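Subject: two folds for Thursday's group meeting

Dear M.,

Sorry for the delay on this. The cluster queue was jammed most of the week, so I only got both jobs back this morning. I'm pasting them in the order they finished. Each block is the input sequence followed by the predicted structure tokens. Could you check whether the formatting survives your parser before we put anything on slides? The first protein is the one we discussed after the seminar.
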Amino acid sequence: MLEYMPDNTSTHNDNGPEEFPTGDELPEESMTVDDLAPFSVDTDEFTDINELASAEWKESTTADERIRTVIKRTVDPKSANEIADTAVVSENKARDTLNRLVEEGIVRSHQTSSGKTYERDPDWYLLQQVHQLATSGDLVSQIQRIKQELANYQSQYETSSPEELLISDQELDEEELSDISHWRTAKREFNYLRAAYRLQQAKLEDPYSERGSFNRDSDQRVSP
């Protein structure tokens, strides 16, 4: 594993620049708020804030990046035209990129009577979430926190799952329905964390895996 080694010979000062401009290099007039340009496009050309946001997004990203961003958030099937409109690209560009992402297993496509639709592949998205969690470091405290939260719900409602509570004969008020929603979210988060923990441990124990993403010194064991 390669580790970053600081250059002790560097004279860089983290508290400021190494060199300051001379008097000849300074502007003749002081800067004002009007001199600042937070946007990469000319804001005077736009009267609608949504059009400005789209133009700024288009200026600062590539077409493929925008399509990937949109499809990553698409959980209901949408046409290439709908995705193109959101991603600020042509329909042909959107369709070509989406079909390529289908081949890569990132996107799912569906053939309907009105044409092909696209959505993110839920299995791929789940694996990405699990992998991201697995590389986030210590998961033990997060798992213990969620396990305690689930135990509290089970104790409070004297049932093992939110589904059992929902289909019970008990009349549920608004607060209890809210608890069911949070309980379900906690269960889903626990399943993600458990899968991520197992992946993390597998990487730690695999002699051929790259261990740079994990810290063996913080290796703890739980029973997820």
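Second protein, same layout:
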Amino acid sequence: MIETALAAIGVAATVLGPCFGAILWLFWRYLDSRFDAIEEKLGQFHRADVAAVEIQSLRDEIRSLGDRVALLETSE
């Protein structure tokens, strides 16, 4: 009886082991693809933040140049 139970456990482990491994591998691939998508979104947000900072600095520079032009026009 014990030998039969051990044999059944051995057969189940032999059959289900690779299936369990395949399920874990598929789950890992799914998580990896989700993490890649999240990293891509974070990269897009970072690029948008950098672009917003650059746009703001260009606006500030344009305002500064406008102020300089106004000073030059009033000094003439």
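Two things I noticed about the second structure. The chain has one helix and no strands. The helical segments are 2-75.

Cheers,
T.
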